[in-house]
Amino acid sequence: PAMYSSLHAADSDSDDSLLSDVSASPTRRCSPAPRPAPPKHRPTPDPTSKPKRKPKPKPKPVPSSTSAPASASASASASASAPPIRAAALSDPHGLAARIAPGSALTASASTVSFSSFRRLVQSRNLSFEPAAAFSNPGPAPELEPEPESEPAEIPSAEPSPPPAATHPPPQLRPKRVHPNSVSEAPAAAAEQPKRPRGDPGNFVRLNINGYGRKKSFKSQARRPTKYRSWKRQQPGGGKPRAGADEEGDFVAEALLEREKNSAAGDDGVLKVVEVAREDPSEQNLEGLLRKVFGYDSFREGQLEAIQNVVAGESTVLVLPTGAGKSLCYQLPAMILPGLTLVVSPLLSLMVDQLRKLPAFLPGGLLASSQTSDEFHGTLRLLRAGEIKVLFVSPERFLNEEFLQIFGDTLPISLVVIDEAHCISEWSHNFRPSYLRLRASLLRRKLNIQCILAMTATATTQTLQEIVNALEIPSGNLIQTSQIRENLKLSISMSDNRLKDLMLLLKSPPFVNMRSIIVYCKFQTETDYVCKHLCDNNINAKSYHSGLLMKKRSRVQELFCSNKIRVVVATVAFGMGLDKSDVEGVIHYRLPESLEEYIQETGRAGRDGRLSHCHLLFDSTTFYKIRSLSHSDGIDEYAMSKFLNQIFSSGNTMGCICSFPKESTSRKFDIKEEVLLTVLTQLEIGEEQYLHLLPQFSVTCTLYFHKFSGELSYELKDPAYCYMILKRPDDLNALSANLTKWLSEVENSKIRKLDAMFALAYYAVKGCKKTDGCSGSEHTPCIQKRIIDYFSKKEGTPDDDYCTPLRKSSTFLQSDIKVFLQSNSFAKFTPRAVARIMHGISSPAFPAATWAKNHFWGRYMEVDFPVVIEAAKAELVKFVGKGE
């Protein structure tokens, strides 16, 4: 018997595997053909004709009864006879035996062929049948009874068999496969088995039955290397892993690579237009440059005046609505001015987006903390070579003296652009301590800068005055347009069940037919919860907040911009630098913290000039929660005094470099880390400069010795604020009182902004007379009027007494505070700490993870915070006086 390797049996297209299985099949009982008589003797097989084991063996003839010399003569006599009449044999309905070459490895009867094919088909459809076990190692085939030496039975055939060759038989053609279920006379097409996947073991196919496994929805999710990694491997030593790089570093590197690929050498036409505009920055020449590079026919309101001021070297404050083209006001001058344009931006994602949107003829760069040392020095090398015209940096870079020393006489700066300039003012809705350092005195003293462009989309009169004073910009160079676009329909509705109303809103006109909608939430957990609820109700949505990885946020923004997802549920971080002009709707799931924030977020819609809709779901519970959180940054004078004593301790003399860990100090004085930085910044830029801030660093270094590999690694922990003492205050108590008062005013400013937002929403829902065009939930006329009044309010005008639902007293407040102090006598409380717990506000010393389990947590959220502080102060005096 012939033996066949598993390689033959595993291949579904192999003829040898088919014949080996056919030869081992039992005969069919219903066959009318008589069984051949047993032979007189068994022929001796030829050992040289056995098939050899090769990767791709070809079928060779094996010894059989047809190859014997005796049968050769019988075969010749049979072929010489007249051809038989064509008929369908009952034992061979498919005619398979007639097409099997006489020189094949094994020969079987027609009934054997038919039954074996049917048996294989039935077994292959059985769920418990394992073809790998059945066909890969078939084992030794049973011995077949050889054909008799007499003349074989005549096989019906359409054509007579050709006479055999004298010496060697001619090479036989591959036999055609016949469908096992065919009942036709003519041979039918073979039923091919499904091809197994490439590299898959056996004949099994991997199935994704219950949704497990990788699901590719978009092309960019395929398993292939990114552009940056492909490019990096082509560089010298590019295959090595980048030590210390994180996912934000990869994100920045990919943006730089994309910028490098998209950039092109400036052609002569653009250079000529730039030279003409540089010599004469007239309106006609600037519009020619605008058409040549940016493809626009004319400037929008405020753009031309700002560009002409900057080109002439005059510092300017520019206030344009969201999406009105503020970026153009520094991109076009950057092409004309001879030196570098330095752009200060608050967010890394915003810087990367602005870098990508630079025109191809304007080379740009980026300095970020997430870059590796090679990338950082590579950018500096391009800067010194003059190959970068626009450089994006964060405000924290100005704390680094080495960074400031880079820009000297060898690298002149023609323009400094401060994006989101309202962050400079502590009275703004988005105050950032690092922006406080961006003063004209610092910029001129350290960088020798003469021209500053401050840009913002939302700023009150008081905030604008603070910006003008800090940057020393003439008041006549303030360019301001309307902060409200006329193509926005503004609506507000009272909601008792915001999740249910949101679903109803998205499934009813006009939002049901919108392709791009942004839903703004306040908290990250709330964002994920709302997004999950929308997805469960067949609404294509994704969440976006700062808790997600940079690449995932970038992916969500990319899908939203390409209209592959309809709804993005996001926090306030989404939308800054969003390059999507066809957003049709914005829904506020919670009350915004200020009118500035409300205008900035609604401004994401309708940038293409088409009619867009913005809706606010208003409820008083949200107002209580947000107003309580507005008191999270306050400091008691007692805590401020202790903190200053640590900064200016007796051992910290003038010129001494000191530091303190952020986390432990924050927990010790119950002051947030951001507030600690604000106090240090105020000590540096105040009326008297007491200290000089230095870059942050880690105070703990842990070394790891790896015994087997012989390597040494380290880990930096406990980030700390570092500073140098320049002057010791004469009166620490007076300084502590002044700083506490200043922080209290900043806190009150934030609360007044929230009260103004509440008053607008409450008026639209409850007090609107609906006489100026308001109808139903749409209140565009009255909302626009109150917004204009808010932003045009003159400095020095007394603040409005906004009506809020907060209570000024409570019957059981004093008694509940007393019980709380008695049941938690082990803790050291301050009046502010007790009030925070009663309002449900987490703090470094009393985090929500521990104290939210207390049944007094958030019980008096509806009572005004100063009222709770006074009650806590009175009870603490009694509690300490009794010695409890």
From TrEMBL:
Where does the UniProt annotation locate this protein? Answer: Nucleus
According to its UniProt record, the EC number is: 5.6.2.4
Q: Does the keyword Lipid metabolism apply?
A: no
Predominant location category:
nucleus
Give the enzyme class: isomerase
Q: Name one GO molecular function term.
A: DNA binding
GO terms in the biological process aspect are: cellular response to water deprivation; double-strand break repair via homologous recombination
Q: Does the keyword field hold Hydrolase?
A: yes
Question: Pro residues compositional bias: what residue ranges?
Answer: 159-173
- UniProt lists compositionally biased (Basic residues) regions at 50-59, 213-232
Where is each Helicase C-terminal domain found? 498-668
Q: Where is the composition biased (Low complexity)?
A: 19-32, 63-86
Q: Which reaction does it catalyse?
A: Couples ATP hydrolysis with the unwinding of duplex DNA by translocating in the 3'-5' direction; ATP + H2O = ADP + phosphate + H(+)
**Domain of life of the source:** Eukaryota
Pfam families tied to this protein? DEAD, Helicase_C
Keywords attached to this Swiss-Prot or TrEMBL record, sorted alphabetically, are:
ATP-binding, DNA-binding, Helicase, Hydrolase, Isomerase, Nucleotide-binding, Nucleus
Residue ranges of every copy of the Helicase ATP-binding domain listed in the record: 307-477
Region ranges (Disordered):
1-86, 132-247
Give the CC-aspect GO terms.
chromosome; cytoplasm; nucleus
What's the family? Belongs to the helicase family. RecQ subfamily.
Any idea what this protein is called?
A: DNA 3'-5' helicase
